[in-house]
Amino acid sequence: MHAVKTLLNTEGLAKCNVVAGEKGLDRYVKNITIMEVPEVSKWLKGNEIILTSLYAIKDDEHAIANLIYELDRVNASALAIKTVYLDNKVPESIIQSGNTLNFPIILIPKEIKYLDIMSPVLNLIMNDSSIDYKKIELAMKMLNEISLEVEGYEYFMNTLKRFIDFELTIESEISYVLTGDNHYDIQPITEEQIQELLIIKKPVPMQRNRQVHSLETVISPIIVDGKYYGNITSWAPYREHLESDILLLEKAVSILSFEFLKKKVRIDIEQQYESDFFKEIVYSESLNQRNIEIWGKKYNLSTTIGYQCLIITNYKNIDAFRKDLERNKYRLSEAIKKIHHYIIVAFTQESISIALPKTILEGDILDKIQELLKKLLIHHSSSIVIGVGQELKGIVGMKKSFKQAEKALQLANQTNRLGIITHYDEIGTRRLIFELGSSEELLNIYNETILMILDDEKGFELVKTLECYFNHDESLKITSDCLYIHVNTLKYRLKRMEELTGLSFKRVDDRTMFYIGCIIHESRQSM
Hints:
Number of domains: 4
Strand content: 15-25%
Oligomer: single chain
CATH superfamily of the largest domain: GAF domain
């Protein structure tokens, strides 16, 4: 396969001038074509030099401005323009786009005909064709005869390696697809690379990191329903591959895409089944006993076993968390179930819910789950919140434990307890506040304490002091150190709050009023 810079030496193109995108002259060329239609990119297959006068879009500034971005998106190789309809100059927007994207823009002199360029280029491409169709036919016959369920992906890859002379690796975003490759020295491809692969949908030359080295590779994406689910990587520069290698990689991933789709459908059904079952338990007011009996057998549910529920989410960056959760839910579910297959894992768009049976509860089980979450949701490791309920007996106990986990999650959010586990047992007197919700009596307590303090010109400073005071168990020294103030200043502030409210820190009931007021204030601040 020839690069654009090589073909510039052919008769016809040798008389043309590169006016932009010189850094992209290493792009490879499979074909050369003439295009004088709007939306030219929809007719291309990739790796073409396009000859055009831009006549079809000469009066459409928007189409001209976006042309190079569209051609680059479909992996075209270069654009050669005759400017007879453009006042004999290449539009500035095309020049800028070419330089930005490193996409070669070639100016065709008016005396050069399209045929003068096409014939020499096509002759060189056709005479140098490296497509071995017999080899591809044999390879596809052997690959199609493989039963991936029986013989596995490792056997599939070993068969493919018989026809391509470079190291090949396979990666799967679906953890249930066991590819047999465990190359821990290979760093995952980036989100930007994934987006490029989704646009091009064909084998693409890309840099990949392996151990401490950045290497030239060819990545062939496995795409299912428009989403990236894995790849085959050939560990050699694109230019070293025969055209038949690239074609064979493209056909191989098409087989895998279909197999991944079948696997994904089955896994989606199983995961949805499990999530629906869990929601039936924790949200339904009247449990369907028949469903509980049928579904319960699958997860070994018992009315005599204790269950502990936990919920994981990220309030600080919910949109990014939702996206990463969707991408990693298969890996998360599998990794958690490797701890024990009777663990129930359910997903919503914004959270993960887990029910742990008492039979597997041990000292470090929650720590193991937390480490898995931080590893697989690495961008959220320091900002996830984890609420844990008590261990309670039976299906009814599981439901109650889930409600407790929700309240622990609420506390974690209110007190900014990020990246750590918050147990329901830690809520203390806040349980009463959660149970009473937004009752009129709680509102009265808030009005008689915090609201009266906030009316003071230094109200926010006083409330912050009050919160710090209770967070440090009413220790004058620790609180003053935390606020970087003198103990006498702290005493003055406490005295001022007593004057504003008519309450006294010396009376237990009054201190309780202040404390409940603080909790309500925290709740309002986090809403």
